[in-house]
Every structure is written in C-alpha cells, then in structure tokens.
Amino acid sequence: MSLMISRNGIIQEVTRKSLTKKVTPPDDNRVQFEDVLEKESGQQMPFNKEKGHPKKETLAESKGLKSYQKQSTQIHSKLVHARDICSRPIITAKPQDTIQMALEKMQKYKIHHLPLLDEAGTLVGIISDRDLLGKRTHERLDKVATKEVLVVKDSLEIKMVARLMLENHISALPLINEEEELTGMITKSNLLEYIMKSTPFDRHI
Predict the structure, then answer these.
(1) How far is CA 14 from CA 22, 52, 169, in A?
(2) Disulfide-capable partner of 149 in 6, 87, 112, 173 (CB 3.0 to 4.6 Å)?
(3) Strand partners for 175
(4) DSSP helix/strand/coil, 67
C-alpha cells in the first residue's frame, strides 16, 4: 500500500480510499482547438481550395504540437519521487511546545505544517496553522494536534502523492524512509513548484 498512518508512533498500512469523483482520463479530456477557435471567431475554419472541404490538418500534424510532445516526453521520461522535490530540512516541533512557539516557528520558516516528534524522534502527531486558529497561545500542541498522521514513503512517485492528497483532502504529507524515519515533508506547494519549473513553453507567460 502507498498510504500509511502513524498512530502513537506506530506506522501501519491503510487501505487507500477510492475517489468520490472519477478523474477523467487524459485521452477523453482533449480539447478540440479548431472548434474553440471557430466558436470564438464566429467563422468557419479555412477551406481546402482544391476540394472545397475544410482542411483536415489536425493538431497532431502541427510542428508546434510535435515539438511540445517531444519536450514533454524528454522532461517526464524520468520518474520523479517525493524525496526529489520535498522540503528539507524538515522543521518539527515537540508535543509539549506551546501554540505560541509553533506560530513563531511557522512564521519564521514560512510554513503551514509542523510534525510533532517525541524525545526519541518518533512521529506522534502533526499540527497545521488552521488547527491553531482561535486557540489559546499557552496551550500545548499535543492537546490540539492530529494524532493519526497520514504518511508515505519518500520513494513514492509524485503522481501518486498528488492523487493521495486529492483523495484524502490534505495539503501536506510527511515522508519516511525504509527504516520509518522522518525524512521530509511534501506539500501542494512543492508539487506546484515542480510543475511550474518542468512544464514546456513556460516562457510565454
């Protein structure tokens, strides 16, 4: 299983929930650009002068699309794992730390989540800035933290990481290695930053 959960420092595998909303396969979600252009311009596509029929030139035949497909293949031919784009070093807190201490640490490092580690370095909880809203600043973190923490192996491919985040409605996942040691944190921001840097033709923006 890809997804695991840490309960009281003990990591166990969990059954991955099915998506409540099916994701449309890429092949069924293609945009017919000729139709879009025709609707926007209110004009029909150019006709073939010889036969009097619309040109049958498709996007697949255009040099621009072929170039894009070539770049996409080259960029995404290598699998990217969670450990390749995660946030490191990981910033953590202790269960006995106060909310005020957590807020100051989040502000200093510009982060939104803090894994909680006990004295032995075991993952025992996680806190987000949303969890701290409206709470008294002198309270201990272990009083308001989420004790059951979803985690994934740092060797997991990022496409699966993104899917797990969508399915479970979370924006961050702690990463562990084969020895179940905390090695990093992957967030939606990490995924978006990777997409931004790796997408071809990003210079036209």
Answers:
(1) 21, 61, 16
(2) 6
(3) 152, 184
(4) helix
CB under 8 Å to 34, separation ≥6 — which residues?
45, 59
Are the beta carbons of 142 and 116 closer than 8 angstroms? Answer: yes
Instruction: Tell if the pTM clears 0.70, that is, is over it.
Output: no
- Domain 3-8+80-198, CATH number (from 3.10.580.10, 3.40.50.720, 3.40.630.10, 3.40.50.150): 3.10.580.10
Closest-CA residue to 85 (of 156, 146, 133): 156
Per-position DSSP letters for 116-183, written without gaps between them? EE-TT--EEEEEETTTTTT--TTSBGGGTSBSEEEEEETTSBHHHHHHHHHHHT-SEEEEE-TT--EE
Distance, CA of 102 to CA of 130 (rounded, Å): 12
pLDDT band at 68; cut points 50, 70, 90: low
Give the DSSP per-residue string, 183-199: EEEEEHHHHHHHHHHHS
Structure tokens at 173: 């996942």
Question: What is the total residue count of the chain?
Answer: 205
Domain edges within the chain: 3-8+80-198
Query: pLDDT (tens digit, 9 = 90+) per residue, 153-173?
Result: 999 999 999 999 999 999 999
CA distances 102 to 58, 99, 127, 137, 186, Å, are 56, 5, 9, 9, 19
CA angle at 137 for the pair 131 and 92, rounded to the nearest 5°: 60
